[in-house]
Design a protein that fits this description.
The complex is a heterodimer. Chain A has eleven helices and no strands. By secondary structure, chain A is an all-alpha fold. Chain A starts with a helix and ends in a 7-residue tail after the last helix. Chain B has a two-stranded antiparallel ribbon with strand order 1-2. In chain B, helix 3 packs antiparallel against helix 4, helix 3 packs parallel to helix 7 and helix 3 packs across helix 11. Classes of the chains: A mainly alpha, B mainly alpha. The interface between A and B is large, with 45 and 42 residues.
């Protein structure tokens, strides 16, 4: 197991480098120019100088190499420095990936600033989704073809087919415009200091969480149900029933434990997807998170920021693929690592 | 349909065989599909939507870009009425006309993007399933593509190539091609995996072995024996692929990065009208309803087809 883990972590590195190359190469083709945002009065020679100082005239391999070093060495070092408030080497001189849009602010600082909002929404939504989907899927499978199952299956198909941007707008219409229960726009500056602000935070996060959570729950419930249905006709279930165990015991101790293994893996695999989903949800409710940062960067042609955020999304996918594999191995002793 | 009857014309036939209708393979599929009530509802709803979108603009000849403010200053943000069937938007344009016209493009994007991804996915899947040497590199490539974050990358690629394609092919065609190609190229991986799996299992079947042993050439085996047998997973994933592509296009347009304002796809209409939700909720309800009905019907049809085409997998 330990050896397998080391090998898997090592294979991540070439994957990440390949992905970083794709993302860098695609964006390097961009016709965008960081000096285009500067005032018109700047003379062309000065523009040329600025471009040169930013290293934009270097050949592609040099640019890519420098970017790799900045991204994989300098940025993590700076992150560690700010996280633990220590000094490693000469931090001032270290070249960092800086934004074109907001003149020279390190991209990572912008991302760290936006991260909490996204994590709040995404995290809560996923917890809500799991809390709804798993019980619904389990009950649907045990009482297959019952009214509960039919309603649940139908609802999950609807939840999975209606785009989040429509459910989001419908919720705004119902709960903000008509009933005035929740605020229409997310207030990012809200600090939780007392009971009232906590209530307000919960109120403003309710709709984004519900929209994102419902969508995820639909997929997850379908999957849980079919995983349970795979296990119910198994011999070991019949044996347990034949031994005279009560249904509740058989379901919880035998069927559920085996059926949840693929569900847990799917939960791990779904984390990157829910971050992607947050791009749209944040746009509906104007949550000032990572997705909103990406959309803004795309509109401003801020290539370094786009590169970094896109890479973070890719990183999440690769890492949670690994996590899912490892969890599967731990939970299911039938999987042998060789 | 031809009816074959077994008649007891010969005297020595002891048992009279019951009448049995002769059915083709597709007749069988239709029979099983028909049992799926929700899939049938899906066919009807989708049929109506397609009919409305294709034929609607021919009958309902209001110009989607015409602003009724010119005739009547109060014609902005109207709810549905006899004069404006589905209401008007903030510039006094007719909502029904815009939805019908935009729906054509939403559906066309779905169908064309599906063709791109199915063609590419089938090609990769068949090649890697059939030729052992190609399997590893092609599947590694598929894995790499799956690890790319598709929504951010879609947004980025469209931003990068929008202007050059617009200059090359004109604003409408350029963006249409770009959106179709990008959605197709970032969406073929699941198809490739499913097709590869089917090819791998079909390849081991006795009839393929028989074909190999009588000396049939590889391309013929591929074309005549393998491809027809992997058709059902391809059809199912093509159906679901249309829904996925329509959803992706709507998401892109909803983020303001898809089609421009004069191409009012359903997603674009949601993007443009979401700020007027308090003044005139109908503006977002209609396009959202059309997208949802389309996706829902296609998914129902897909589910029905899956059961009808492969009865062994039935639950």
């Amino acid at each position: 197991m330990g050896q397998y883990l080391v090998r898997r972590v090592l294979t991540i590195i070439p994957t990440l480098i390949a992905i970083s190359f794709v993302i860098f190469a695609v964006l390097d083709l961009a016709p965008g120019d960081p000096t285009s945002a500067l005032p018109e009065t700047i003379r062309p020679e000065v523009r040329q100088q600025i471009r040169k100082a930013m290293g934009l005239d270097e050949p592609f391999p040099v640019k890519y190499g420098l970017w790799l070093r900045q991204f994989f060495v300098n940025e993590p070092l700076s992150l560690i420095e700010t996280a633990f408030d220590i000094q490693i080497g000469d931090g001032e001189k270290r070249l960092r990936v800086t934004s074109w849009g907001s003149r020279g602010v390190p991209v990572m600082d912008m991302i760290v600033e936006r991260m909490p909002q996204t994590l709040w929404v995404v995290g809560m939504a996923y917890l809500v989704a799991i809390a709804i989907a798993v019980p619904v899927g389990v009950v649907s499978a045990i009482r297959q073809y019952s009214i509960f199952d039919q309603v649940g299956t139908f609802l999950s198909l609807i939840g999975y087919s209606i785009p989040t941007f429509f459910t989001g707008l419908l919720m705004i219409l119902l709960f903000s415009v008509k009933l005035k229960w929740f605020p229409m726009i997310y207030d990012t500056n809200l600090q939780i200091v007392d009971w009232n602000s906590l209530v307000q935070q919960l109120k403003q996060i309710a709709m984004p969480v519900a929209v994102l959570g419902f969508f995820q729950a639909a997929t997850l419930a379908r999957f849980t149900r079919s995983s349970m249905l795979d296990n119910i006709p198994m011999d070991y279930v019949r044996t347990a029933t034949a031994k005279g165990f009560r249904e509740r015991y058989v379901v919880i101790r035998h069927i559920l434990r085996n059926s949840l293994i693929p569900v847990v893996t799917l939960i791990a695999l779904g984390i990157p997807a829910i971050f992607s989903g947050a791009i749209i949800t944040e746009q509906i409710f104007r949550v000032n998170g990572l997705g909103a940062l990406l959309i803004g960067a795309i509109q401003l042609n801020d290539i370094p920021l786009v590169q970094t955020v896109t890479f973070i999304f890719a990183f999440l996918i690769v890492v949670f693929n690994l996590v899912a594999d490892v969890i599967y191995g731990i939970l299911d002793p039938r999987i042998r690592y060789s | 349909m031809a009816v074959r009857t077994q008649t007891a014309s010969t005297d020595n036939l002891a048992v009279e065989l019951p009448e049995r209708r002769y059915r083709t393979l597709w007749g069988d599929v239709w029979l099983r599909f028909r049992r799926h009530k929700l899939a049938l509802v899906g066919v009807v709803v989708l049929g109506l939507l397609v009919l409305a979108v294709l034929g609607g603009p021919l009958i309902y000849t209001v110009d989607p870009e015409y602003s009724f403010i010119v005739d009547d200053i109060d014609s902005i943000n109207q709810p549905p009425s006899v004069k404006y069937r589905l209401g008007t938007d903030d510039l006094g344009r007719d909502t029904l006309a815009r939805n019908l016209f935009g729906g054509r493009i939403s559906l066309a994007v779905g169908v064309f993007a599906m063709f791109v991804s199915i063609t590419f996915g089938t090609l990769v899947g068949v090649l890697s399933g059939f030729f052992r040497r190609l399997d590893n590199p092609l599947m590694r490539f598929t894995d790499l593509m799956l690890a790319l974050p598709s929504l951010p990358l879609l947004l980025v690629i469209i931003m990068l190539f929008r202007d050059s394609l617009k200059a090359l092919l004109g604003p409408e065609l350029g963006i249409f091609l770009l959106v179709v190609l990008v959605i197709g190229i970032l969406g073929w991986m699941p198809t490739a995996r499913v097709v590869r799996g089917s090819v791998l299992s079909i390849k081991e079947k006795e009839f393929v072995e028989a074909a190999v042993s009588v000396g049939t050439r590889e391309p013929v085996i591929l074309w005549q024996h393998i491809l027809p047998n992997v058709l059902s997973p391809i059809i199912v994933s093509a159906t679901l692929g249309v829904a996925a592509a329509i959803l992706t296009e709507s998401a892109l347009s909803f983020l303001g990065l898809g089609f421009p304002s004069n191409v009012p796809t359903w997603g674009r209409l949601l993007f443009e009208n979401k700020d007027f939700i308090t003044q005139n909720p109908w503006l977002v309800i209609w396009p959202g309803l059309f997208i949802s009905l389309t996706i829902l019907s296609i998914n129902f049809i897909g589910d029905g087809l899956r059961d009808a085409l492969d009865p062994r997998q039935r639950r």
